[in-house]
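Researcher: Batch entry, complex prediction.
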Amino acid sequence: MTEKIHVSSAPHIRCDVTTARIMHDVIIALLPCGVCGVYLFGWRALWVMLTSVVTCVLTEYLFQKGMKRPVTVTDGSAIVTGLLLAYCMPASVPLYIPVLGGVFAILVVKQLFGGIGQNIMNPALAARCFLVISFAGRMTAYPFLRTVQPPVDLVSSATPLMDLKAGQAVDLWHMFLGTHSGCLGETSVAAVLIGAAYLFFRRVITWHIPVAYIGSTLVFCGVFAAFKGAVPADMTMATYLVAQACGGGLALGAFFMATDYVTCPITNGGRLVYGVLLGFLTAVFRVLGKSAEGVSFAIIIVNLLVPLIEKITMPRAFGKGGRAK
Amino acid sequence: MFKQAWERLYNGLVKENPTFVLMLGMCPTLAVTTAAMNGLGMGLSTAAVLTMSNLMISALRNVIPQKVRMPAYIVIVATFVTVVQLLMQAYVPSLYDALGIYIPLIVVNCIILGRAEAYASKHPVWPSLFDGLGMGLGFTVALVCIGAVREFLGNGSVFGLTILPDTVDKIAIFTLAPGAFFVLACLTALQNKLKAPSATNTPKAKNRTCAGNCAACPSGCMGCAADAQAQKEGDDR
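Model: Structure tokens for the complex:
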């Protein structure tokens, strides 16, 4: 009789969602972008992705072994970090750059802060910023598409966002499909949306962050561009904003990076505040700043503000505190 | 007498190294160590001021009234800083330009005020002199180490001598502010890992209730109370 009475402490209802399951879903959702990157930029893109993923996994394994901590490589979070890191660098980078970035992402940003769940900013994006500051030339030398025969004396070409910044009109359909130069995994909005649809279907992410982020980016970009007169002469405000939405890392950042469980707020209200802050900073960097892109810097800065956002959006426990009647 | 002098030197260089163990004077440490030469210049000028001010404050320790000791220390330190500043401007103008505002800011360097308050004001002239020298040299060694690593990784050279050829990519972030934090943290971690003997890294330290953390020290163990005092009162500029 006694073996039928199971005594345990709360919580008694559990769901089958584990870190590993979520990470595997994210990896599956990231695949369309990777396939697209390899299709657009050739096998070189695959090598960059593999190098980055292998470095991240190895770094995590070696560090945890060396520090005699439980090894958490099997949860797949290092693979996600490696993929995201590779997606935000050009396919033409020398392979020591993804190696260095992978080590920085896992060792400095993730493990030194205590491992999964403890990092204060998104490891992949922090590593990208580290690399962009360190190797500015190589990280912004975007290669031509595999299918495009480059002019003889050129090895890199401008991204649509750079063209926009320079006041040239861009082709929106190409931007949506991703058939233009840029970082290897972020050019195609279509591929990102396919992955994001899978994440929504699996309920890994909610709508709050992507909608608040992309929406506020467009609003602030529109306001700043109107104020500064940054819209190219042969584009309307509407097409300019669509180009901003499809350009650079905004789609990949909004669906995959800003929604990182560790570094985004817990409550839905907090997530909206977080998204709007991200949109504001991205628009400031893109329209008012000197460079054409600002998604990665915006996300890691707002990642640091998340504890404050959590503080002001903390829900009140039922029956406690609140306004006196 | 010489044994005491050596003990103070060893204490400043290794056991209570102001940068890697006491974590004092972080502002010049992080700001000027973009190159090994800058670190050396900053370290030596601080060492000169520290030695002379320790000597003077120790000599005047029975004359300075307790209530106005801080202003008195500042006046003494500022005097020596002015001397060092004028000398550097005259003889090493390029280094003077490279260090910029951080030379006058030696006045409020918390290592100097910390040593004045924690050591020189309570001890005779001879050990105070070597305490200042040891701390100053410890600071210099730390700054040169950080500067050399940053210059090598970020610029491919050490003390201005090119080591890596132009074809090798340098990691430019190491010559910028974030690089200072990375290098300082790594060197401090290395010092801890290698169990270099220091005030917080001896077998005895493990038995202390504070585990070497003077800020959270409940018992006021006398071993590091002086440094906690220095840390509390030193104004880190």
